[in-house]
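Ticket #4471: structure export looks truncated?
Reporter: QA, pipeline team
Priority: medium

Steps to reproduce: submit the single chain below to the structure queue and open the exported record.
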Amino acid sequence: MKKRKKQEMKQKAYAKSTSTTTPITTTTPKVTTTTPVITTIVEEIGSMLAPATSNYIMGSIEEGYSFYAMLGTTECPHCKAHKALLEQYLLTRPNITFFVVMLDTDASTRKAELVDHLELYHIPLTIKVENGVVVNKFEGRMELEELERFMD
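Actual output as written to the record:
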C-alpha cells in the first residue's frame, strides 16, 4: 500500500512539473495573413509553385484574395505533366504564384468543402480566382497554348 501511494505521489509531482499553462485548441485558425506573406516571397524570388492545403485555398477565397491554383493528386500522370508544364511556364513569367493542392496527401479539414465549392469532377483542375471569386476554371491537362489563353 505504501509503495502504491508513493508511486501516485511521484506521478502527481511529475504531472505538476510538466504541466503547461498554454491552452490546447482544436479549432483551425482562419487564414488571414498567409497570402500576403506568399506575395512578398514571390516579389523577392519570382514566380513559383507553392504547396497549399484545402484550408488555405478556402480561407483565401473567403478573404477575397486573387490567385491561381491547381488541384490534383500525386499519382495522377496528367497532374504530374500539368505541374511540369506550370513549372516550365513560370520560369519565364515574373511574379506569378500557382498554389498546388495535392488532394491525396491533403489532410486538411476543408477538402470536401473545397471540392464542392469548385464543383470538382476531373483532375487536374486549374482555377483563377479574382477577389475571392472563381472567374476561370479548366479541367484536365493543358497544352502550353491553352495555359497561355487561361492566364490572359
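Status: closed, not a bug. The export was complete when the record was re-opened. Leaving a note from the reviewer for reference: The CA atoms of residues 58 and 113 lie 8 Å apart.
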